[in-house]
Design goal:
By secondary structure, this protein is α/β, with parallel strands linked by helices. The protein is 28% helix and 25% strand. It has 15 helices and 27 strands. The longest helix has 22 residues.
């Protein structure tokens, strides 16, 4: 049996379900089915089965003997036992789905027999055996939760979490559910870690792992180190490449992969898109008590991975070239991805206010999301939310529980004009929210960080303390990388019946969600006249896969 009470001594009986999922005992009949996908190996005491940073992604099943999974010691923490797996148990977690490098090390504590299931065999197991697949997936997810609580020291981030670069790293790590420990450069522990690693202030933000130290880190560098960037698919040519991992892209990845398509999902930032920045979604069917956008999109990402989709981020796309033999997507680093069809689900980016010093304050007091990460930076301080639609209303309600005082600034006269009634009613009943209609933000002030803004109403300016300006004022489509694909007057992608004479195909008309270029589809917020709602985007992404199958049949 696995041992864990000594590893997590402070967690009580309320965690029993989490533990049961994380450390299951595989029934003998299931174990015999599982080992049929792998190869048998005899192991001796002290054998290292995998190490921190290894790219090996084999699932390890223990038939006899004992395997210990440990966190490698660092300059600031000793070795830590995470799991002792005995007969009928397994070693592995979510990295078996994501392809991420190993987070922990595995060594043999008692000689015996193990079975290794390589990535190809593992994918086959997950596709063919639903009972085993569910058991393993629950274990992977639960272990990642426990890893985040106990072994973050295998990846230590040193820097200012409230800076623009720090917030970008925090967002990436949170979206990837990457266990880590953040050490501020002003804390005693942070300065000690800097000294041990030979770091200076100019090296920050930095990441320290048991194997190496990364200086001046950004999400792209860290993703490369973790093995989360794009790697060519086994077939070489993808059936479907999805650009944009918001709700539409994730839905398409789930349906495409589950229906046997070699599916690649790319995102310039991280999985989840703008939906992951939503603090609370209350009108999504099936969740009457609401859930965060990060929770919704995180579950969808795991679901897509389960079915064999290949997810990569941050992977910004530079261009799309289409020809009679298919399409080629080129990433900004020059990597080319040949693909038979493409789904554009890049959504739209929030617009900025045309104010001096706006770029300077982005990430240093100006935010486009209202999640726990941003709320921590403004806890107890006065903040302002700008915008008159649902996203602004949800942000104001969420921040009212964490910030000092929230001012909701709306340029229009009527708060009900673009916002759902239930949100307006809740905002008006919340004493910590002040609503300012017919008002605009006209100036920004502060040294390194935002500390004051100017609000103008009826031509009268007024200075207000503001340590967080949350901007939700509409969006522009992320289509500037597309060439040769027809756009509407606002830069969105028209599809099917909207195309008219802009359709470039020969021998057939456009399919549902197909753009002007045959085999290139669009779904979600980037599509012209789409509803701009999470549920609608999910429906479009899923429905577009049916058209992808039809397009592939035409090419066959």
């Amino acid at each position: 049996m696995s041992t864990y009470p000594t590893v997590f001594p402070e967690l009580g009986e309320q965690e029993s379900e989490l533990f049961a999922n994380a450390f299951p005992q595989i029934e003998p009949h299931l174990f015999s089915r599982a080992v049929s996908y792998g190869s048998r190996h005899e192991v001796a005491v002290g054998d290292i089965l995998f190490d921190v940073g290894d790219e090996d992604c084999d699932l390890i099943l223990v038939e006899t003997g004992t395997v210990e999974i440990v966190g490698t010691p660092t300059a600031t923490a000793p070795e830590e036992l995470f799991l002792s797996a005995g007969p009928g148990q397994f070693a592995g977690e979510l990295n078996l789905l994501t392809g991420q490098t190993r987070l922990l090390s595995a060594r043999v504590a008692e000689a015996g027999v193990i079975h290794r299931i390589d990535p190809a065999g593992f994918r086959l197991l997950m596709a063919q055996d639903a009972e085993l697949s569910d058991l393993l997936l629950r274990g992977f997810v639960a272990r990642r939760v426990l890893l985040a609580r106990r072994t973050g020291r295998n990846l230590e981030v040193i820097g200012d979490p409230t800076s623009g670069g720090g917030l970008a790293l925090q967002t990436f790590l949170a979206r990837q559910e990457q266990p880590h420990l953040w050490l501020t450069d002003t804390s005693d522990e942070g300065r000690k870690a800097m000294t041990e690693a030979g770091l200076t202030d100019d090296d920050l933000p930095a990441v320290v792992t048991p194997r190496e130290t990364l200086r001046r880190v950004n999400p792209g560098i860290l993703s490369q180190h973790l093995g989360l960037t794009y790697r060519r698919t086994p077939k070489g040519v993808a059936d479907l490449t999805i650009v944009g991992a918001g709700p539409a892209g994730l839905a398409a990845a789930v349906y495409g992969a589950s229906e046997g398509l070699e599916t690649v999902l790319l995102d310039a930032v991280a999985t989840g898109g703008q939906a992951a920045a939503s603090s609370r979604i209350e009108n999504y069917m099936g969740f009457p008590f609401g859930l965060s956008g990060a929770a919704l999109t995180g579950r969808a990402a795991v679901q897509a991975l389960k079915f064999g989709a290949h997810l990569a981020s941050p992977c910004a796309v530079a261009s799309l070239d289409s020809g009679p033999d298919g399409h080629v997507i080129t990433l900004i680093d020059g990597t080319e991805i040949p693909t038979r069809t493409v789904l554009v689900a890049t959504g739209a980016a929030y617009r900025n206010l045309p104010l001096d010093r706006w770029p300077h304050f982005v990430g240093n007091g100006i935010y486009y999301a209202a999640t726990d990460l941003e709320a921590q930076a403004v806890a107890g301080l006065p903040v302002t939310v700008v915008g008159g639609a649902n996203s602004a209303g949800q942000a104001a309600i969420y921040l009212a529980r964490r910030a000092g005082q929230v001012t909701l600034v709306v340029r229009g006269q009527d708060l009900y004009a673009k916002m759902s009634s239930y949100l307006v009613d809740r905002i008006l009943a919340e004493p910590r929210i002040t609503v300012r209609t017919a008002t605009e933000v006209t100036a920004l002030s502060g040294a390194h960080r935002l500390s004051e803004i100017t609000l103008t109403s009826a031509g009268e300016p007024e200075s207000c303390g503001c340590f967080g300006l949350f901007c939700f004022i509409g969006a522009a489509p992320a289509t500037d990388w597309l060439t040769g694909v027809a756009l509407d007057d606002n830069g969105f992608l028209p599809t099917d019946v909207q195309l008219g004479d802009r359709w470039t195909g020969v021998g057939r008309g456009p399919l549902a969600f197909e753009t002007s270029v045959p085999g290139v589809f669009a779904a979600g917020d980037v599509r012209s006249e789409s509803m701009k709602r999470v549920a609608a985007a999910v429906g479009e992404g899923a429905s577009a896969v049916r058209s992808v199958h039809q397009a592939l049949a035409f090419r066959a």
